[in-house]
Amino acid sequence: MGTVHARSMDPLPMHGRDMAVHPDDMIEVQEAEQETKQEILENKDVVVQHVNIEGLGRTKEDLLGHEISEVFDAKNLIDVMKKSHIARQKLLRLGIFKEVEVVIDTSEGADALPNGLDVTFEVTEMKRLTGSYNTMVGNNEGSMVLGVKLPNVFGRAEKLTFQFSYGTKETSYGLSFFKPQLGNFERNLTLNLYKVTGQFPWSSLKETDRGISTELSFPLWRTNHTLKWEGVWRELSCLARSASFAVREESGHTLKSALSHTMSIDTRNSAIFPKKGALLRINQELAGYTAGDASFLKEDFELQVNRQLVWDSVLSASLWGGCLFPIGGSPSSIADRFYLGGPTSVRGFGMYSIGPQSEGDYLGGEAYWAGGLHLYTPLPFRPGRGGFGDLFRTHFFLNAGNLCNLNYGEGQKAHLQKLVECLRWSYGAGIVLRLGNIARLELNYCIPMGVQSGDRICDGVQFGAGIRFL
Question: How far apart are CA 172 and CA 164, in angstroms?
């Protein structure tokens, strides 16, 4: 945090004829002085009389009052410093300040109390228009991203963003508007207008989406929720002349209007290399009741549990699953089905190359499940420990899963039997590299098992990059 100004609390100097001090006695005196200072800081009652914010331009003061109000509740100097630091983090989280410094000083003026303090936040607002250029890693794809952002548009942490992305499989551009609730930054509203063109070579399919969406995000108890409505005009076409007839049948224009809800609980200490904690994410999507051609109910979930073992090793277990139920007798679209396989899910198989296929094109499925058991350990002999070497982990894994279409008139027992039969699984080992806190790379040696007719396998070395791994 920033500079702290306060009256001197140093003890009075010692006087006497003999000023010689033994080194051990000096250490004991210094430790006693530190303990005394700490006790004084913790026990001396103080009153925060004023909290000032300097450097404001276009930012409205009512936005900041909610973020700094807890500073007034501090009862001693240590508490003031802690609450001021928390308030500083909240101000930076708003994304409207470039810098925030904190100054704590004794109160002055006619109304100053003997134990009164003034806290001042010195802020530097971000420019009205900022630009960015970076690269992004998706699930086994990379992209270049150019962005233009207008932070704090109306003075209450609103944000208007235009972003263009050009990637190996996807090109997109979009305009979004972000608006948080006063006093509750986690509760916010986002409006999006976008166009996305993606290529899916495993299905010989090209898809162009033009749409609009609105999202409401909010916390509830220990969970985070997102409510979303999306209206999208989808254009499907063949990526190659050799596309199968089943893919050609799916070509054309469709309208999709869908409501979705996502609930998540995340207690992991890290999203990329977690050592402890768990993740549960459940998503439901209902399409067709508001408008559009697509009509279905889609549900899927993700579960991950992590446990730290001896020698800094971590055991991790993951489980994914989902079902899609067509509504109104119309078949599901190839753009809405689930896909499975590849270095980010069931390793040892080609990208999304498990399940129903036609003439070499994979069509996806209406039900799936996938599970994984992983053991992460430090590199042998711990090279680069405490530095660059901590970005790497040795990885041992066992994956299994299945993807298929279900006949919903057969009953649950038949469904479970179909999901279990023709089980694909694999095992292997490799090296994992963490890229910041957003993505990771894997280089594994995979041995696929349970291979079915039509599956595309990767027996041996397989490379993967992404943000979400089984």
Answer: 6
Tokens 């010195």: give the residue: 122
Q: Tokens at residue 40, please? A: 């004084």
- Residue from 404, 403, 401 nearest 449 by CA: 401
User: Which residue type, as a one-letter code, is found at position 466?
Assistant: G
Phi, psi for 418 (deg, rounded to 5): -70, -35
Tokens of 62: 């009512």
Secondary structure, 3-state, the chain: CCCECCCCCCCCCCCCCCCCCCHHHHHHHHHHHHHHHHHHHHHCECEEEEEEEECCCCCCHHHHHHHHHHHHHCCEHHHHHHHHHHHHHHHHHCCCEEEEEEEEEECCCCCCCCCEEEEEEEEEECCCCEEEEEEEEECCEEEEEEEEEEECCCCCCCEEEEEEEEECCEEEEEEEEEEEECCEEEEEEEEEEEEEEEEEHHHCEEEEEEEEEEEEEEEECCEEEEEEEEEEEEEEEECCCCCCHHHHHHCEEEEEEEEEEEEEEECCCCCCCCCCEEEEEEEEEEEEEEEECCCEEEEEEEEEEEEECHHHCEEEEEEEEEEEEECCCCCCCCCCCECCCCCCCCCCECCCCCCCEECCEECCECEEEEEEEEEEECCCCCCCCCCHHHHEEEEEEEEEEEEECCCCCCCHHHHHHHHHCCCEEEEEEEEEEEECCCEEEEEEEEEEECCCCCCCECCEEEEEEECCCC
Between strands 116-125 and 47-54, the pairing is parallel
Please name the residue that has the structure tokens 């990771």. Answer: 440
Tell me how far apart the alpha carbons of residues 470 and 462 are, in angstroms, rounded to a whole number: 15
Give the burial class of 97: count Cβ atoms within 10 A of its Cβ; 0-12 exposed, 13-18 middle, 19 or more buried. buried
Contact criterion met (CB below 8 Å) for 91 and 102: no
Cα–Cα distance for residue pair 148/130, rounded to 1 Å = 6
Rounded alpha-carbon distances, angstroms, from residue 159 to 152, 156, 215, 230, 303:
6, 9, 14, 20, 32
| Cα–Cα distance measured from residue 122 to residue 149, given in angstroms and rounded to the nearest whole number | 23
pLDDT per residue as tens digits for the range 221-243: 889 999 999 999 999 999 888 88
Does residue 163 register a pLDDT over 60? yes
Identify the CA nearest to 341 among candidates 360, 354, 358, 322. Answer: 354
**What percent of the chain clears pLDDT 90, i.e. is strictly above it?**
48
pTM above 0.85, yes or no: no
